[in-house]
Amino acid sequence: MASSVDVHVRICGQEIIKYDLEIKALIQDIRDCPGPQSALMELNSEVKEKFNKLRLRIQDLEQMAREQDKETDRLTIQAETESQRRQLLSNQTAWRKANLACKLSIDNTEKEELLREGDNQSTRQRKVTKESLVETSSNITESLMSISRMMAEQVNQSNDTIGTLGKNKTLLFLSNYNNRG
Contacts by 24-30 with C-beta closer than 8 Å and gap 24+? Predict the structure, then answer.
């Protein structure tokens, strides 16, 4: 008959395996994560939470090993604890690598988007620049034509004024001549 300590050890071992598999699944999700950075950060926070739970369960298993009366049981549980610690370290390494790969992928994607937007913006800006140059040129031409019309009107008014002055001068001259005469 299995003792209650054996049951606790088995339950702890099953929880460790469960957290290990959950961590592996999250690491795969990180590898497959297309972005954005916020999605990656959310996955990372889940992984950290699972790692903390796994560490606690490994510590519990280690404590159970210390509490064993039989040397063989203690050594078996300690060996399992060491194996789980190595697996934890392996998962941490895989997690770091997945993070680096994902961040690199997200950075490259963002860079490509910026370059595409930059090309589109540059083309759009050139088009806007050409359109604004045409509009400015048209406005300048209109202004020059308006100035030309105003100058022509001014010349006509000046001619009329000169004509009126000439007539007035003639009338004045005749009036003076008639008054003397």
Answer: 24/91, 24/94, 26/50, 27/91, 27/94, 27/95, 27/98, 28/98, 30/95, 30/98, 30/99, 30/102
Q: What is the dihedral of CA 39, 45, 48, 53, to 10 degrees?
A: -120
Residue 115 has pLDDT above 70, yes or no: yes
Strands (E), the chain: none
- Per the document, the length of the chain is 181
Interatomic CA distance for residues 102 and 90, integer angstroms:
18
Structure tokens at 131: 């359109």
pLDDT in tens, 29-75: 999 988 788 898 999 999 999 999 999 999 999 999 998 889 998 99
Other CB atoms closer than 10 Å to residue 85's CB: what's the count? 15
Rg of the chain (C-alpha set): 46
Residue type (1 letter), 17 = I
The first and second tokens of residue 58, run together, are 């490994």
**Taken in order 11, 17, 20, 25, is the CA torsion positive or negative?**
negative
User: In sequence order, what are the residues at sequence separation of 6 or more whose Cβ sits closer than 8 angstroms to the Cβ of residue 81?
Assistant: 58, 61, 62, 65
